[in-house]
Design a protein that fits this description.
Elements (H helix, E strand, L loop, with lengths): L18 H9 L30 H17 L3 H14 L4 H13 L3 H14 L4 H13 L3 H12 L7 H14 L3 H14 L4 H13 L3 H14 L5 H14 L2 H14 L4 H7 L2
Helix pairs in contact: 2-3, 2-4, 3-4, 4-5, 5-6, 6-7, 7-8, 8-9, 9-10, 10-11, 10-12, 11-12, 12-13
């Protein structure tokens, strides 16, 4: 829903680490938040009594029931979501969007086997439904099944008409990071940025990748662009700033980033990893 850097010139601020130890430490930070396109509709939910015929057109009724279910999913009302999906299934028992919405409900309630069955049913009913495939890939990623997730995200990126394609490339890159495929990850993030130059996740991960490759200047350029996109930096954004400052020996920036990380995100994994070096 994900990195490394190699600190070639450790400053006096921290203890000196071997190149392999640095990789090992920072590999624990792989994989920022996976960007999942669930296509949910948040906001005000209109209540309809069960069994009420919403339209004389079965297709219109089905679409409205699925839309209602997605609204309920968006606010975490699983029972009303399932109720509307059951009514939609009465109209069309093999509808891919109904299967997918059921999968999202079951995934959210921790019923993972049922969720996977529904995702598979959705893709069997409509193999070209890229939103469902993207969500299935995100589900696989959340289960730690990175090889399968990478394969499904790649298939999503092949759909040139899919509106979520830039984010699918980001997700593909995050999956490849988990598989220690830095070159493949960089290629995916580069494609994402060619479609969406302001994607914060792609910018951040490219910064870490460039830093690990020893290109501190390029890492700093990605980080600076990330900062313009996300002025309120995430813990990972601050960590990247810390690592760049450490490599360049910029003690003022290093102290500033560490102070921000400690004050804003004292319970974050990134802060613990930094202080436990």
């Amino acid at each position: 829903m994900k990195v490394d850097d190699v600190r070639q010139n450790p400053s006096e601020y921290g203890f000196r680490m071997s190149r392999s130890a640095q990789r090992s430490r920072l590999s624990l930070l792989r994989g920022g938040a996976l960007m999942i396109l669930l296509g949910l509709m948040a906001g005000c939910v209109t209540e309809y009594s069960g069994g009420t015929q919403m339209s004389s057109d079965p297709d219109a009724t089905l679409d409205k029931r699925v839309a209602l279910a997605r609204q309920y999913i968006g606010v975490g009302d699983w029972e009303n979501a399932k109720r509307n999906l059951e009514l939609a299934r009465e109209v069309d028992p093999e509808n891919a969007e109904v299967f997918e919405a059921f999968a999202l409900v079951y995934q959210s309630t921790g019923e993972f086997e049922m969720a996977e069955n529904q995702f598979r049913a959705a893709l069997k009913a409509e193999p070209t439904l890229s939103r469902a495939r993207n969500n299935y890939a995100a589900f696989l990623y959340s289960q730690g099944r990175y090889i399968e997730a990478e394969r499904e995200f790649y298939r999503v990126t092949e759909d040139t008409l899919y509106s979520g394609r830039p984010m699918a490339f980001v997700n593909l890159g995050l999956s490849r990071l988990q598989l220690d495929d830095n070159a493949g990850a960089e290629a995916a993030f580069t494609r994402a940025l060619s479609m969406d130059r302001r994607n914060p996740v792609a910018l951040l991960e490219m910064g870490f990748l460039r830093l690990e490759a020893g290109d501190t200047n390029e890492a700093a350029r990605y980080h600076e662009t990330y900062r313009t996109v996300s002025p309120q930096q995430s813990p990972r954004g601050l960590l990247l700033g810390l690592e760049i400052a450490d490599q360049t020996g910029d003690q003022d920036a290093l102290g500033s980033y560490e102070l921000a990380l400690r004050n804003l995100y004292p319970d974050s994994f990134e802060y613990r990893a930094w202080t436990e070096r």
